Amino acid sequence: MEARPRTAPSVGGDxxxxxxxxxxxxxxxxxxxxxxxxxxxxxxxxLSRARLLILWCGALLLVLGNLQPVAGxxxxxxxxxxxxxxxxxxxxxxxxxxxxxxxxxQLGLGNNTSPRxxxxxxxxxxxxxxxxxxxxxxxxxxxxxxCALRTDDTLWCWGRNYHGQLGRGNTxxxxxxxxxxxxxxxxxxxGMHTCGIKTTGTLWCWGQNSYGQLGVxxxxxxxxxxQVGAASNWTAIAxxxxxxxxxxxxxxxxxxxxxxxxxxxxxxxxxxxPITTSSNTTHTQITMGRMHACALxxxGTLWCWGLNDSGQLGRGNTxxxxxxxxxxxxxTWTSIVAGRDHTCxxxxGTLWCWGLNDTYELGLGSTGDRTSPVQVGTATDWAKVNPGNxxxxxNRTDKSIYCWGDNAYGQLGQGDTSDETxxxxxxxxxxxxxxxxxxxxxTLAIG
Length: 447
Known about the structure:
By secondary structure, the protein is mainly β. It has a single domain (16-446), classed as Regulator of chromosome condensation 1/beta-lactamase-inhibitor protein II (Methylamine Dehydrogenase, Chain H). The chain contains no helices and 34 strands. It has strands at 16-17, 27-28, 47-48, 63-64, 76-77, 83-85, 96-100, 116-121, 128-133, 145-150, 155-159, 173-180, 184-186, 193-198, 203-207, 221-227, 234-239, 243-248, 251-256, 271-278, 283-288, 292-297, 302-306, 321-326, 333-338, 342-347, 350-355, 370-376, 382-387, 391-396, 400-405, 420-430, 432-435, 442-446. The strands form seven sheets. Strands 1, 2, 9, 10, 11 and 12 form a six-stranded mixed β-sheet that branches. The protein has a six-stranded antiparallel β-sheet with strand order 5-6-8-7-34-33, with no helix packed on it. Strands 3-16-15-14-13 form a five-stranded mixed β-sheet, with no helix packed on it. A hairpin with a 3-residue loop joins β21 and β22. It is globular, with a radius of gyration of 20 Å. Mean pLDDT is 84; it is low at 1-26 and 28-88.
């Protein structure tokens, strides 16, 4: 793949509205232009340019592991390159923070200094509402982007833009948040593509499309948001590496690469437009990992499908599921989120994880895959969980943040790169965690 010319990065600066060089070259670090990003070893599809926008997209049983909170507190000093937290205070309310891998500027700090082992504030804005990071590790020069929504429904993206995954109408990288026009309610990031739901209920996708993951009926890659069909009742969206699923009218629809039955429609054929995965109309949540997916129904039941080589479906075995399969008989699941090859969920305030566990990502104090849901510790006040790429972070009801698992990039926010075998408190920080996308080594949180 031909290398793209880049300008020297400058640190800091406020986020800017999408724009920048029409030729799509260069890197923006605090002043305009976004990045480029891409998938595995696929040939690049033609790009079309037009301006629009996008949004985002993200559980089971047994008992092991203890929580190990660590005391301490931090406070913050600000700089345009990201606020370094030093001694004793919590995150600023509504402010965005990032830590972990930043090799493609995916933390939005105005630079690509990496790793960042402690939380740093992204600019000075205090109206952030939600965030997501790429579903694929930043390892091939084409992946590693992030997006976030503000309380005014504006969408902002930054990082790698090799395939136009930032939705700016070009393929220019940016190290600081850049606005994507439109009014958005949800966002979901795949490996090198992005999808979002507008406040009108319409669905839009952009970026790499080699497997039809944009759902626009072709394999053409787009560097600006493209509407998926004409429906205006989309309520949830989730993106895998090269596949996407969403909920419309309570039913689940999926499209993109079908390898390992990850589209849940009994075959492995590629789908370039949304196809029905489950016609049941009571689905409330959808989440996707690298090769598997799970969904919650309003009755509190959990359903998963796709690859199961590490037990990530929670079925008690390693048999792949070609269609949505109920996990256990429980009706008390309230949240489900897939990591790269593991899954975690909440029920009655308790935390349960299963699947791949070679770097302690299940938080059980030991390694070894688990094929059925296992309770993490005994706490009953878990409010949120976000598995990433071989690590996991979560929130308790007091908004305290805990992280565990692989820490090679400092993604656990402990100020070091030491792995943690059980949930460890990110001392002095309270906020809502948005741990890295399922393939990411980066973490985002909002105060």
